[in-house]
Queue: 3 jobs
Job 1
Amino acid sequence: MHFKNPTDEEIKEILISKKRIAVVGLSDNPMKTSYMVSAVMQDAGFEIIPVNPSADEVLGVKAVKTLQDIDGHVDIVNVFRRSEYLPEVAKDAVAIGADVFWAQLGLANDEAYDYLKAHDTVSIMDKCIKVEYARLVR
């Protein structure tokens, strides 16, 4: 892997200034990591938009099937899908003009990273947004 994440200071600035997060692969199962992470972020004041074609509602918010179904600007696309799906999600994130693409802990893909970099989209990979928020902001 050759991806390079922003510095801690840059990540802290993202987490302070970007408050609208579309969560791709957000499960409606409270036992799943995506649900637990998103619940903590929602409780911390972030707006969570569930992106899951098989869920109607997650965390009290109506789910959308795709990123393109979201009204308004998305600050962060937070991804809970396997690494091989990251290039596809990266293309969708660029298409909607998201500021930041964030692949959760354990997820990384050089093709997605290269695409995001070529389209001037900040990318963070293999980091948990909840952990980084607790470590850098709280």
Note: The chain has a mean pLDDT of 97.
Job 2
Amino acid sequence: MSDKDGEPTRPDAEQPGVDPLDADAPGVDDAAELEAAEAEIADEAEHDEDKTVAPTRRRGRAATRPANRTEGGATAAGTRSRAEAERARAAELRRKRSIGRFLREVVAELRKVIWPGRKELITYTTVVIIFVAFMVALVAGLDILFAQGVLAVFG
């Protein structure tokens, strides 16, 4: 303790033999003690079933909701239990899996597509037909070549 203010003296990082990390944690003399306490707290949190989680932030209607209003078990502090969070997540998954939502999303994506004009469509179709014809000719030529090779070898 320092004599003038009655508070414990904090070791400075510049002092020889003092670990700089220990100097940053006031009130803790041993880093191993701090790590053991942190590990104990982490184990307790891992096994705690009523662990609270922060609510998910949603766009739209949730942004206009008053701050003191609670919904789905959320407290005024803005936390909810793990079970309530899992139920909310399951309900959201059910909403995401609906057929109507899927079809609306498909239509929305199709509106984003840049559809080709008539001239582009004719050009692309011609390129595809020529490419397919070339590949058919190549495979047919190799087939005839290998067939003649097999007949020559095995008679």
Note: The beta strands are 52-53, 80-81.
Job 3
Amino acid sequence: MKKIVIVIFDGFTDIDLFLMWDILGRNRTDWQVKILGTKEEHRSAHGLSIKTHGYITEANDADVVLFSSGRTGVKAAIKDETFMKAFSLNPERQIIGSICALEFDSYSRKCLISKMRNFKNATTTARVAVGRSVFSQPGH
């Protein structure tokens, strides 16, 4: 069974977590989905408290690692040295992504991973493409 983790932090965007959790959580045969954070409970940008299933270091062993977004939450997480040093991700072995390409770019620029592909949509700026393969096909 594959292990999928969704990483959250204080100030995450509610709908981004819930969308990934709902869609991925519908299949319980092929994979297990967990919400990970730096503490037992994180508060969303809109004030909802969400309990986590484990600590973010579990992401290092997961098959798929998905990062939630959050306008202010991402900035705070990236500045948190403990948060950043907890990850030792491997894009050769893991699928690593985010629901928001610009947020994903912020993580990668801070050296969570060195090689990745980005997917962009109409609202994504050209800065995402710096040093990476960019795919703009719908559904990719």
Note: Strands lie at 2-7, 31-37, 41-43, 49-51, 54-55, 64-67, 95-98, 117-119, 133-135.
